[in-house]
User: Which sequence fits this backbone?
């Protein structure tokens, strides 16, 4: 793991006690120091926002059998020999990943890589797809340098075999933008700025290519606009950031059913931009709609619903509506099955139960 990926101190060294919920979200409380708690809440907000934005990314942001026509679904009946073996292994990777068994998924993915290289060679789109999947797994465990290496190689292969404008190439470029953004959020100073600049470049390329491939009314283009806007905000270009995030929201809302999960993601992203501008009433409207959709479609205990509840609670805290914020925070604890007394007992202990960041 790179130094940048490991710079977050464990909870015990910061005086935090944490309880991990679905999706690796840590519900954390500090004992006494409000300044430290504010810093922690900002870190969690960045982490949750990154998860929420990534939830709207294209399908290849999840390990699949791309290149074999699998998409994580059933295995094609016509495959035989090595192709069938690869298909079975890819299906296994998808199932392990969906169960959050990252280490096991990565082990099988390494076996897929060797099998694909042996059968197709290392200059084939299927091999690039395997590298893309491995990069996502490296990213998940904070091995950012390895992730960049794998994904950059995947993009090079895609460009050489299917061209710069192929959807596989364009999607991988967007994935690399997300990777650089996440890497930046785990870095500081000039390194952080440099990584965000890289993210901006790849997001811009991804956005323009999707505009050309799918048109200005495509929800994929709309999500690409929001991704680009988010990195502009992190680079302190707040005016242009709002323009892209709002434009992307409008495209997604117009293109999809009002109850679609990607509409919830788009509204969540818009809510954050409005909150940061101090436009709390408008932000509340976006956050509440995102939460309503996720509760209806995913249920109250799903990690994406928990993210939406957390974001709304953070808005109320910034707005000065502490009672509303605390009520939502208690709902989060209830959904995670954490008893308030148990949580207080844990905080009163040595503070060593888990990490402040997942």
Assistant:
């Amino acid at each position: 793991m790179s130094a940048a990926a490991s710079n977050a101190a464990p909870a015990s060294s910061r005086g935090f006690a944490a309880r991990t919920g679905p999706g690796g979200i840590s519900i954390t409380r500090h004992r006494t120091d409000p300044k430290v708690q504010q810093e922690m809440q900002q870190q969690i907000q960045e982490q949750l926002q990154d998860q929420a934005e990534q939830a709207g990314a294209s399908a290849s942001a999840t390990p699949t059998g791309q290149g074999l026509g699998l998409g994580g679904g059933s295995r094609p009946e016509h495959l035989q020999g090595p192709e069938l073996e690869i298909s079975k292994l890819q299906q296994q990777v998808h199932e392990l990943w969906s169960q959050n068994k990252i280490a096991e998924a990565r082990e099988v993915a390494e076996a897929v890589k060797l099998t694909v290289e042996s059968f197709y060679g290392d200059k084939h789109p299927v091999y690039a797809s395997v590298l893309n999947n491995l990069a996502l797994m490296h990213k998940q465990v904070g091995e950012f340098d390895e992730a960049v290496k794998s994904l950059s190689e995947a993009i090079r292969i895609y460009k050489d075999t299917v061209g710069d404008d192929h959807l596989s190439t364009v999607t991988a470029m967007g994935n690399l933008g997300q990777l650089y953004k996440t890497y930046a959020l785990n870095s500081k100073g000039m390194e952080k700025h440099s990584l965000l600049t890289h993210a901006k470049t790849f997001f811009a390329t991804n956005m323009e290519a999707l505009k050309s491939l799918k048109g200005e009314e495509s929800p994929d283009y709309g999500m690409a606009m929001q991704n680009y806007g988010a990195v502009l905000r992190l680079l302190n270009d707040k005016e242009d950031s709002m323009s892209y995030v709002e434009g992307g929201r409008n495209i997604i809302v117009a293109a999809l059913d009002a109850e679609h999960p990607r509409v919830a993601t788009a509204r969540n992203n818009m809510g954050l931009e409005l909150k940061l501008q101090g436009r709390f009433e408008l932000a509340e409207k976006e956050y509440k709609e995102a939460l309503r959709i996720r509760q209806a479609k995913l249920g109250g205990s799903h990690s994406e619903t928990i993210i939406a509840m957390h974001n709304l609670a953070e808005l109320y805290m910034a707005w000065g509506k502490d009672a509303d914020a605390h009520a939502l925070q208690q709902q989060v604890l209830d959904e995670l099955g954490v008893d308030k007394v148990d949580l207080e007992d844990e905080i009163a202990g040595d503070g060593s139960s888990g990490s402040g960041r997942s």
Summary: The two ends are 15 Å apart (CA to CA).
